[in-house]
Specification:
Layout (H helix, E strand, L loop, with lengths): L7 H11 L2 H6 L9 H19 L3 H7 L2 E2 L6 E2 L4 H10 L18 H35 L2 H13 L2 E6 L15 E4 L5 E11 L8 E8 L12 E6 L1 E3 L5 E4 L2 E6 L10 E14 L5 H37 L23 H33 L3 H36 L11 H10 L7 H13 L5 H17 L6 H27 L2 H39 L6 H17 L2 H10 L3 H4 L7
Parallel strand pairs: 3-6
Antiparallel strand pairs: 1-2, 4-5, 5-11, 6-7, 7-11, 8-9, 10-11
Helix pairs in contact: 1-9, 3-6, 6-7, 6-8, 6-9, 8-9, 8-10, 8-11, 9-10, 9-15, 9-16, 10-11, 10-12, 10-13, 10-15, 12-15, 13-14, 14-15, 14-17, 15-16, 15-17
């Protein structure tokens, strides 16, 4: 019974009216010809594929799941997944934003971001199969040898082969410095790799002819800890000199995890039994090379939850308009029916608006971050490239953690709109909740993201990058403070910016004396920063919408209803969601002692 309509109009609003991406991209030689019509046409076709091809497979794929043949170690994906992937490849979608030197179409990353949002809304489990390939592509594009790039990048670009990242092990979790997988050098320059990896998404499947595994392991002379980790390319099948597929390599799936969600994606226990691999990057510098893939994956995981937030909201909204229960507190609204639609009730609207605010605000943030990546890679001005890189580094943990936290909250709120029906499988809502939950731990838990933001991205450079983003916020506030239409947005935004600056100084000072103060503050700090970032984009969206409405009124025309909806949602965000920061700041100032001086409580 679930439905999905690609949010093309809202994407157009964000891309063209808020971010003016065609102008921004016009300054970059590879994208100088990228105009509004081209972007819209690509996204319209992407929306058709998402809604018509893979969305119908979402509930059935969750029900059927993946199957492992214990004898051959082959994994069978749910019915329809392989055919959908073949259609995806035939349509050229894997190559959308890839380098033309390897067969890619060279479109901007910001366009690819919108494609993947729709794919994630339609079917996150399916989307993770091709999605992980982009990270492998980016890693090899940045750190692969010429031979590795020539052999593997064209196949990853076309989608003929897929990729994975094989990081953690049963005893490691996030602490990769503990990993034990071994890599023994061979006379021919290759390495023999042995070990076990767990939680490897799409580690084995039947969609593509070969799988390119990027594996972390230790060389015999490796120093202990994270400084002794190297990265290796280990294909499922060896590749012959002419590019054809050869014999099976010694890497295989030893088991499938039985998970809370994303049942249709194969989360594998991978065994490396004397597998042959080649070194990617420099010895003992594997984490530096892998972080190219990790950062791409973190943006991608935020995008997964953004997609789920959107589809959960769409279904809850449709249900609330149709389901009748009780009468409105202010009088009958549907006299021809025995009860009023539940959308008339204030708390139902609160739940719906929470999801809408997080979906549309998250879309603006995700597209902005993607545009920063385009600018970092292609802008002709080196100062712009450097500034874009700094801002993207600051925002990446916020995209990953804030959007995934909000996505799970929104999915639960939307499930609540359904009441008891929200727990029934055929409505689709309980699957959105289950699928959304894992994104909060993917690619480094959200606590890790929070420590990265506060410890490395903010305190690590004495707040310089935070000030860089803050300058954008301050400039917007100054430009709009005198406009009475904007007062309800810019005043709380300015106040929060000042509070965040002061809070950062306080935490930094206490952290110099006791590092646990940073750990105790980090998660709440990221949410405060996330609200400032999302508040900034909601204020900007409100300004665009107000101006568009004024222009329509001056021309005696009826404005697009989207604009009034933007203003109303912005008001809800500032009145109902941003005030969470007050309690977060109070919790941060409570310090670490109430957490750490608790041995008796936890005995």
């Amino acid at each position: 019974m679930a439905v999905y309509t690609p949010p093309l109009r809202d994407m157009q609003f964000v891309l063209h009216e808020l971010l003016d991406v065609s102008k921004e991209l016009g300054a970059m030689a590879p994208h100088a010809e990228m105009d509004i019509d081209t972007i819209n046409a690509v996204l319209e076709e992407a929306g058709k594929f998402a809604s018509e091809v893979i969305f119908p497979l979402n509930i059935s794929g969750d029900t059927q799941g993946c199957k492992l043949d214990a004898h051959t170690h082959a994994v069978q994906t749910p019915d329809g997944f392989k055919a959908a992937y073949e259609q995806y490849v035939a349509g050229g979608w894997p190559s959308l934003s890839c380098d033309p030197a390897y067969g890619g179409q060279g479109l901007p990353f910001v366009v690819n971001q919108c494609l993947y949002e729709m794919l994630n809304s339609a079917n996150q489990s399916w989307t993770m199969y091709p999605g992980l390939s982009h990270g492998a592509y980016e890693c090899l594009h940045a750190h692969g040898t010429p031979e590795q790039q020539a052999t593997y990048l064209p196949k990853l670009t076309s989608g003929e082969w897929t990729g994975t990242m094989c990081l953690t092990e049963p005893h490691c979790g996030t602490d990769l410095g503990l990993l034990r997988s071994k890599a023994e050098p061979q006379a021919d320059g290759t390495y023999r790799i042995s070990g076990q990896k767990i939680f490897i998404s799409a580690g084995e499947h039947d969609l593509a002819a070969n799988i390119v595994h990027l594996v972390l392991a230790r060389l015999p002379d490796a120093p202990p800890g994270s400084k002794g980790i190297s990265l290796f390319l280990v294909p499922k099948f060896h590749v012959n000199a002419d590019g054809s597929i050869g014999q099976r390599n010694g890497i295989y799936c030893g088991g499938l995890e039985h998970k809370m969600g994303i049942h249709a994606n194969a989360t594998c226990q991978m065994i490396l039994d004397n597998a042959v691999g080649t070194l990617v990057g420099q010895p003992h510098k594997g984490l530096a090379a892998m972080f190219v893939m990790m950062n791409a994956a973190r943006l991608g995981v935020g995008n997964q939850s953004l997609g789920l937030t959107e589809v959960a909201y769409q279904n809850a909204l449709a249900y609330a308009k149709d389901r009748v229960q009780m009468r409105s507190l202010t009088g009958v609204k549907a006299p021809a029916q025995p009860a009023d639609p539940i959308i008339v009730h204030p708390d139902v609207r609160r739940m719906l608006l929470t999801a809408k605010a997080y979906a549309e605000g998250g879309r603006a943030l995700a597209c902005y971050a993607s545009l920063l990546l385009d600018k970092e890679q292609h802008h002709p001005d080196p100062d712009v490239r450097e500034e874009s890189a700094q801002l993207l580094a600051l925002l990446t943990p916020i995209v990953k953690a804030f959007i995934t936290d909000n996505g799970f909250d929104a999915a639960v709120q939307c499930q609540q709109v359904y009441g008891g029906h929200g727990f029934i499988k055929e409505w689709g809502m309980e699957q959105f909740v289950r699928d959304a939950r894992i994104n909060m731990i993917y690619e480094g838990t959200n606590t890790i993201q929070s420590l990265d933001l506060l410890g490395r991205k903010v305190l690590g450079n004495n707040g310089a990058t935070l000030k860089l983003f803050g300058a954008q916020v301050e400039s917007f506030v100054r430009a709009n403070m005198a406009d009475p239409r904007m007062a309800e947005f810019v005043r709380p935004l300015a106040e929060l910016g000042q509070k965040l600056t002061q809070l950062t100084a306080e935490v930094g000072y206490k952290g110099l004396r006791n590092a646990d103060e940073v750990g105790a503050a980090a998660v709440d700090y990221l949410r405060v920063a996330g609200h400032m970032v999302l508040g900034y984009f909601w204020a900007r969206m409100a300004r665009v919408a107000l101006d568009k409405m004024a222009q329509a009124q001056a021309a005696a025309q009826k404005p697009d209803p989207l604009y009034l909806g933007k203003v109303q949602t912005a008001r809800f965000y500032f009145a109902r969601l941003m005030p969470e920061t007050a309690s977060l700041i109070r919790r941060i100032r409570a310090g670490s002692e109430v957490l750490m001086d608790t041995d008796a409580a936890l005995s």
